[in-house]
Hints:
Radius of gyration: 26 Å
Distance between the termini: 61 Å
Number of domains: 3
Oligomer: single chain
Number of strands: 14
Amino acid sequence: MSVATGLAILPQWLNEANDASAFDALLSAWVQASHWRQAGIIWPIDENPKLACLVRPDGSTELCQLPAELPETVRTLRDGSQTVVWQLPASSGRLYTLINPPGRAAGIIWAERVGLEPWTETDRSYLLLSARLMERSPPFVARFGTVIDSNRLHQRLNDAAIIAGRMAHDFDNVLTGIIGFTDLTLPLVQGQPQPAKFLTEIGKVGQRGIVFTQQLHQLSRAGQAKPQSSSLSVAIAKEENRLRPCMPSGLQIVADIPQSLTSVGMDSGPLGVVLGHLIENAADASPPNGRVMITAQAVELSSLDAKTYLGHVGAGTYIEVKIRDYGTGIKPEIRTRLFAEPFYTTKVRHRGLGLAVVFRTLFVHNGGVRIEPGINPQQGTLVRIVIPPGVVRPSVVSAPRNGTVVNAVN
């Protein structure tokens, strides 16, 4: 690699080009300036990895089979190695490193050089620097989606929540008056179909307004941490029963929650709000007679894994909940705007408050959320959330006659 030409190309990743073709063009120029034979990006690597692109110095781009060494390489990188060299016959091998943008699934970038010259520490540092610039560049955002700063998003929503709480209180008073006087007036217009119809519609509008103010209250209260332990399976069943009357006919909610799974470190109230919004979104996205799958498991997150979630997540043990629908999926141009534009929505009569409430609730409970496209067009969207496990507290049983107390763990 020519250090001078390689470093000269890197500032171009900071340009303001915001279309996917700009990313492919820059990747080709980067490979050429680095004097490499070819390079590739694998995205994502968490589940059902795909080769996003393979680029050569002449600008040609193609898709091909995933490298056989990918699982071992991923394990090594997740164990803490910043770069990995995989040896190949009659070659200097492939040099790998992670692309790990905040709030997004992790990917890998790799390069092959011409000839047998071994990879040096300079080469490794150069690939690391390239990856850090790429993952935050405007062309990368256009190609793979927006990179979001969780702390900054949390602060923006905190400011919005203060206003939302005050507005919700004032609107509640107004709507209570509208609905109350409508109910009082309806009996006075019996036998008058047209006035009765108008009053009924006014009442319905008032009730829709109450639903909206309830969401404003949820956003306002989402900043209150309530880490008391609660049951995940009980919360899912409760939200399914609540939402069932509003769900499309024939929709199946399939929950696979192991009985041995520990409780989560979130009170049943905020937990139900988070699950309710996500299940409702999945139901809305499902086709007629569709299916929503909900699974959960205990996972151990590394610091790199934690970075892929939007929220306040660190390395450690979590309960991961996956909610998958089988709809048409979220269009890439829409997915890039989720969370990046708080309150963004494409739904009629919605205000985009659901995901804002989910993010803010998880953040204050040291959890996180990630939205991924399905692995094929028939598996529309996968939402992952991680929540710290609940604390198993000892319960006090009856004391022996000598006055000592015996603790039993449930």
